[in-house]
Specification:
alpha+beta, single chain, disordered N terminus
């Protein structure tokens, strides 16, 4: 694969709260007519259970490597200008963001398609694990997008 990942790609895995305005500004450029974003937020329920918080763990060096590969794939598929992928690890309370993806392009079709692809492949390939903490216990969640979640 011809890798097109470049300095216009900003990838961060951190414990700090994520700021959508700051992350969106990282992909702004005069040549872009569109900035598309995805923000994954901790919700207060799952399958009838009250969720208190999420807890994320990651193998950070491998996660960053996989995110760079995703950026390269995106650049090979769509005409995008800049890409920012931020994922929070540690404790993420209800109503706070755990992941923000921002992608700019000259026209909306490319950035919209790229953002959708990015979150789907991130959940399938990147070694970041999520634990849902409920009022009555907790469970590690497996993303249905993961290749290994469908093995028999």
């Amino acid at each position: 694969m011809d890798e097109k990942s470049n300095d216009a790609d900003v990838i961060e895995i951190c414990h700090d709260p994520l700021d959508i305005a700051k992350i969106s500004s990282l992909v702004s450029t005069p040549s872009a007519g569109a900035i598309s974003t995805f923000t994954g937020i901790t919700r207060d329920n799952f399958a009838g259970k009250n969720v208190i918080r999420l807890e994320y763990e990651a193998y950070i060096p491998m996660a960053i490597s996989e995110l760079r590969k995703i950026c390269a794939i995106i650049r090979n598929k769509w005409a995008v200008k800049k890409i920012a992928i931020f994922h929070r690890i540690g404790l993420v309370p209800v109503e706070e963001a755990s992941v923000i993806i921002a992608i700019s392009s000259a026209h909306r079709a490319d950035s919209l398609a790229a953002v959708q692809f990015c979150i789907d492949i991130l959940k399938a390939k990147v070694p970041i694990w999520k634990k849902e903490v409920y009022e009555d216990g907790s469970t590690w969640k497996e993303n249905r997008e993961c290749n290994w979640s469908h093995s028999t």
